[in-house]
Amino acid sequence: MNYHFIGLGGIGMSALARILLQKGDKVRGSDLRSSPLLDDLQNEGAEVQIGHSADAVSGETTIVYSTDVKGENVEFLRAQELNLPMMHRSDLLHLLMKGKKPLLITGTHGKTTTTGLLAKVLMEAGFDPSFVVGGILHGLKTNGKAGSGDYFVAEADESDGSFLKTPSYGAIVTNLEDEHLSYWKGAKELDQGFARFFAQVQKPEHLFWCADDERLASLSPPGFSYGFSKKADWRIERFQQGEKGVAFNLCNGTSTYPTIEVSLFGRHNALNAAAVFALALSLNADEASIRKGLKSFSGVARRLEFKGESHRVQLFDDYGHHPTEIAATISALRGRVGERRLIVVFQPHRYSRVRDLFEEFFTCFHDADEVVLTDIYSAGEAPIEGITTAGLYMRMREKLGAKLHYLSRLHLETGVAQMLRPHDVVLTIGAGDVTKTGEPILRHLAERSPKWRVGLIFNAASLNSAKSFSQSLDPSIYEAKLFGVTEEGNWICEPDAFDKIEQKIHLSESPKISAAVLESLTLCEIVFPFFLGVQGLLEVMKIPYAGSTQASAEFCKNRLWLQSIASDCGLPFRESGNIVSFFVCGPLLSQDPHVRSLYRASGCRGLLRIELSTDSDGYFGLHSIEPFPPFDWNRDLCDQLAISALRARCSVGL
Question: Which one from 75, 124, 155, 158 is the annotated catalytic residue?
Answer without folding.
Answer: 155
